[in-house]
């Protein structure tokens, strides 16, 4: 029985493992948040200063999976961690490649980065496996971020806000809602790095005997019911993913398996253009209490997307 996870051809250079050039596909043009378009819609993105609708950040995680699997084997899908700061948008038609740089021989920690053909850095971060104690890219980043001051869009949010427990599932042919208007079956026709382990029709050959959820689709699963959170974010406003980490503690996560999730606001930060809330989503097997995965996600809300931002800032802070 063939147990190969990927057919992806990898190279090595002075940096480490290098993946092939890929052109990720955009499947979020019809995404909407509370009846308004998202940053992945061309018109909305252009209004906010982008060239067009952007490729969603976790789409790029798929390109790192063959590299991490080459380095660490099947355990990457069980206890793997990928942690990234998104640095530049990618648009449909652009080619990018993934690079993984191990910290040393037999190391359980590596640096990761992705670049465009012109050298533009798309993301930078870390990957690891097992109980590696080296701080992840986002652990290090969060430790140095100042707390958000003069919040306008996020003024009703506070660190430690929590959501109630929800149950989520991703069946192969399940439409994942307005936030993700496609199915896993559809995604697998567009994914940059296909694997027989992702498809129920061929996944009996996997080490677990059943289909696993691709790394990039874990983000989709955990965001599936996000509209029900009713976090107090003022709007209409438009955000993007600025930082993201997915950490498997007792994986993989399986197709058509129910999971319980809880969310907590763990930080509020900001920049010249954005106000950010950092959400930690903890994943449990349905009805159990031991976590099996954690996702950390920085939702960066664009100030320019919130029409009354300047007026409300002036009212709240006197135009300072």
Task: Please supply descriptive tags for the structure shown above.
320 residues, alpha+beta, Thiol Ester Dehydrase, Chain A, 11-stranded antiparallel β-sheet, two-stranded antiparallel sheet, 13 strands
Q: How is this structure best described in words?
A:
The structure is a single chain. Helix content is 16%, strand content 28%. It has 320 residues and is an alpha+beta fold. It has a single domain (11-317), classed as Hotdog Thioesterase (Thiol Ester Dehydrase, Chain A). It has an 11-stranded antiparallel beta sheet with strand order 1-2-6-7-8-5-10-13-12-11-9, sandwiched between helices. The longest helix has 12 residues, at 61-72.
